[in-house]
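To the wet lab folks,

You asked to see what we're planning to order before we commit. Fair enough. Below is the target structure as tokens, and below that is the sequence we designed to fit it. If anything looks off to you, flag it before the synthesis order goes out.
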């Protein structure tokens, strides 16, 4: 007769769980905490959330029941849309929002502060995560002033061809500085309509943003000094601890050949730049052999991309 497996002093051996179903035995409170962190519009768009539904226990039910709110505010009144599953969505009214529910994606055009309907003012405090704004300098400055400073991703698109007045530019610059200094901000993009003459001058705190360990993306069509990339690369080389798996910087520059020669001499002194119209450079992190830096320069579009990543990416 076969003996039952036993542990120490004749006690039954502790059951071993293997594979993803180890997580099936977590409490629902812990699972909900995990979903709050991992489940977001991006993971739902890419389908990553579907993999979490494969875990045993209550995961499938909780994952399938997850949803998020998006706000489109292009006219006088906002339009709230609830997304669920991979493709499901439906328009909802403000009174249909669940208790404590936040709006994790906001798209707006123009100046929200000028909207007359005060019934929707309570929505401002519920907005978080991703913000996209289209408008002029004055409209953006006014809108950013009334919104909470807890967005982790901000995308700004200027739709006006007119140069800002000194007053409006000053107001926008103040809001831009406040955004870049926010401890919540991870991704920031700024673009102008139809590649018109750029008026934005980024504040010095931009260097602090691209050198902090938890930034993930900076992208703009505004011509910038290559010193910004030099600071970011130096900070990456000296870093001992990494909090995100990848970081990306996309910028534009001018006077290509002279700029590239000076840039390469600062970051790769041993390499002689020979007026190449496009080039790539890759190197391993000096302290973490699983992390890499990759630089790609394209003169055809005056763009330089810097990519910091883990080799598993």
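Sequence we intend to order:
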């Amino acid at each position: 007769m076969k003996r039952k497996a036993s542990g120490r002093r004749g006690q039954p051996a502790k059951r071993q769980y293997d594979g993803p179903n180890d997580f099936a035995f977590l409490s629902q409170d812990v699972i909900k905490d995990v979903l709050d962190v991992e489940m977001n519009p991006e993971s739902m768009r890419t389908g990553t959330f579907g993999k979490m539904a494969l875990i045993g226990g209550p995961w499938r039910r909780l994952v399938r029941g997850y949803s998020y709110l998006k706000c489109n505010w292009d006219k006088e009144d906002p339009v709230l849309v609830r997304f669920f599953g991979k493709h499901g969505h439906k328009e909802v009214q403000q009174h249909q929002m669940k208790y404590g529910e936040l709006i994790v994606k906001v798209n707006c055009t123009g100046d929200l502060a000028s909207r007359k309907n005060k019934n929707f003012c309570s929505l401002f405090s519920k907005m978080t995560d991703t913000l996209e704004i289209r408008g002029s300098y004055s409209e953006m400055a006014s809108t950013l002033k009334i919104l909470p400073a807890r967005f982790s991703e901000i995308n700004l698109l200027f739709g006006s061809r007119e140069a800002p007045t000194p007053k409006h530019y000053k107001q926008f610059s103040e809001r831009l500085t406040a955004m870049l200094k926010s401890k919540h901000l991870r991704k920031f993009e700024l673009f102008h309509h139809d590649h018109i003459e750029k008026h934005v001058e980024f504040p010095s705190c931009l260097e602090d943003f691209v050198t902090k360990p938890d930034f993930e993306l900076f992208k703009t069509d505004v011509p910038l000094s290559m010193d910004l990339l030099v600071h970011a690369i130096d900070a990456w080389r000296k870093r001992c601890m990494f909090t995100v798996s990848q970081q990306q910087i996309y910028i534009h520059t001018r006077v290509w050949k002279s700029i590239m020669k000076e840039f390469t001499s600062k970051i790769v002194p041993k390499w002689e730049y020979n007026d190449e119209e496009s080039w790539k450079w890759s190197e391993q992190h000096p302290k973490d052999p699983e992390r890499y830096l990759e630089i790609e320069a394209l003169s055809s579009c005056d763009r330089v991309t810097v990519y910091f990543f883990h080799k598993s990416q």
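Structural context that might help your review: The chain is about 25% helix and 25% strand. The first helix runs from residue 28 to 38.

Thanks,
Computational group
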